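Hi W., the zinc ion complex you wanted:
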Amino acid sequence: MIELLQKLIQIKSLSPKDMGCFDIIEQHLIDLNFKCERIKYLNVENLYATIGDKGKLFCFLGHTDVVPTGPEDKWKYPPFSATIDGDLLYGRGTADMKASVAAFIESTKEFLDSNDDLNFRLAILLTSNEEGTANDGFIDKIIEKMIADNEIIDFCLVGEPTSSEKVADCARIGRRGSLGGHLKILGKQGHIAYPEKIVNPILLSGDLISKLNNKIWDDGNADFDPTSFQISNINGGTGAHNVVPGELEIIFNFRFSPESNEESLKSDFESILDELKLRYDLNWDLNGYPYYTENNFFKDIVSNSAEEITGYRPELNAKGGTSDGRFVAKMNTEIVELGPVNKSIHQIDEHIKISELWTLKDIYKQILINLNQNL
Ligand SMILES: [Zn+2]
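Structure:
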């Protein structure tokens, strides 16, 4: 498992490129008698592997792409070297999420070795663009095709890094939605010494930002944090110190609970702009709806399996960013996300604890065993 993981980390599979990770994984799965299919959509490669011919469909969902490393010289070890230091394995994509992929393949191997009779169909769906943009193609088209072919996933385990302090202390049973926007506040450009002849969009943005920052969009609910609003970029100015620019750009994002929706957020946002009598251009970009798994069957399988291995039950919540679970949710699938500790994801010196990865592998195997006994 660790060797497989190191091989995967040594491949620079920056989103949306798989760069050969699937070739390695596919060979492991063919050896286990999986039927493998590659599905290419836009710039993205996807691997769909299945075994078994009867019963409900369980699918492990994962991705092989990684985010950029940032300055490589800031890393303790080169980010694609997969260096082991004591109990830690360093590298871009270790925690997010090549470790889960390696752990699931190992757990499947062990499970199939000791269980000849499968009471469910076991599938693995991997994409090479979880981290990138929709322009390169997400797995949504694959999911739509699966729905059209009546290949409906009943239970989905997503390997995203959901743990917070130690492995399996947290799992996700939902995710907030993500609504992005690009706002241009329009003013009037001119010489900084002639305030009567200019309209300064930078000064206009002051009241706006303060109102947006103080606004309570909703209160969330028992499983979801309240909707949060953030600004990621502000851009204004011509470069000259004596010119007031004609426009100011703001890039922002809502992470929203099911207590809000696309329409309510758009209209609340726009009414603040109108209240301040701003002139503006505004483009919206809905990146993902929230999803939530209500049924208890698969949630219990995962929680019980984790407890049998670790002695504690994971806290089930709907925190964190979006995940590809949002696309699978269209099938009314029971989805639970469980993976390694996420403290170092997307950061310099991303790493996982090797001992915890073996624990995660055991939990995944226990999930398969318990599914087989309960289906
Ligand atoms: Zn991920």
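The longest strand covers residues 177-186.

W.
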